[in-house]
Amino acid sequence: MTDETEDQRWERLSQDKVDRPLPRRFYKDVAVGEGNKILLDGRAVKTPLKAAFSLPTHPLAEAVADEWRAQEKLINPALMPLTKLANTAIDRAGPERAHVAGEVVGFAGSDLVFYRADAPEKLVALQAAAWDPILDWAKQALDARFLGASGIIYVKQPEAALRAVEAHIAGLDAFKLTAVHNLTTLTGSALLALMIHSGAIDSASGWAAAHVDEDYQISTWGEDHEAARRRANRKADFEGTVKFLSLLKN
């Protein structure tokens, strides 16, 4: 029997299986209680792993409450991105903080923005315009100096730069770490995720920076329907995570 990793266990316990019917809405009233807890008919919501579901800011709690209010006959987690991120923060990023933070640092070791094309000239220019400011920001804000490369051959990054990213992440609480981790996986860039978190780049520019190569390919060859659908889903996740971050700062 194959051993189950912690990530697999968390996924198994906290996510609905695709063949499991959605639960019916069983409550009438949704309110925000003391400690920014979500109350359904006066009873506090718990996470999938049965932990207390308490949110760090009142604006986030109200937005999550609105997600619960918006459910009609069925409760569909796919329509509750803020709730899902909060569950992840409490059930995973809290108890498994070192692992989650390590994944972000791992992305920083092979970040999207390090690996540049050497041709065609237009793509080279597009990558430089979008990605050079990210490296400049990392140098100024994190004191992290990374190495760029042409092509896809792995380049080992300076240990000091990775430790600088690690030290910065150490200052994030579980909720902000969850958002940064999600943005990292959605964009392929830990540095871009941290830059979005800092407010040094807006969400539209951040999304565009993460898709320089893809947009160039679309402009050259056109867009595939299935790829467009997947991209739209990713963008919805991205925008939900940016909203989650903004509500954490209020």
Write the layout of secondary structure elements.
Elements: H1 6-14, E1 30-33, E2 37-40, E3 43-44, H2 58-70, H3 81-93, H4 97-108, E4 115-116, H5 121-142, E5 149-150, H6 159-169, H7 174-187, H8 190-198, H9 203-210, H10 212-221, H11 225-249
Parallel strand pairs: 4-5
Antiparallel strand pairs: 1-2, 2-3
Helix pairs in contact: 3-7, 4-6, 4-7, 7-8, 7-11, 8-9
- Uncertain parts: 1-10, 13-18
Radius of gyration: 20 Å
Helix-residue proportion: 55-70%
For the biggest β-sheet, the strand order reads: 1-2-3
- Distance from N terminus to C terminus (CA atoms, Å) equals 47 Å
What is the approximate shape?
Answer: globular
Estimated structural class: mainly alpha
Mean pLDDT: 92
Q: Element order, helices and strands?
A: HEEEHHHEHEHHHHHH
Please describe the biggest sheet, giving its number of strands, its sense, and whether it closes into a barrel: 3 strands, antiparallel
Number of helices: 11
Strand composition percent: 5-15%
Please provide a written account of the structure:
There is one protein chain. With 250 residues, the protein is mostly helical. It is built from eleven helices and five strands. The protein has helices at residues 6-14, 58-70, 81-93, 97-108, 121-142, 159-169, 174-187, 190-198, 203-210, 212-221, 225-249, and strands spanning 30-33, 37-40, 43-44, 115-116, 149-150. Strands 1-2-3 form a three-stranded antiparallel β-sheet. The protein has a two-stranded parallel ribbon with strand order 4-5. Strand 2 and strand 3 (43-44) form a beta hairpin. Helix 8 runs antiparallel to helix 9 (203-210). The chain is globular, with a radius of gyration of 20 Å. It starts with 5 loop residues before the first helix and ends with a helix. The model is unreliable at 1-10 and 13-18 (pLDDT under 50).
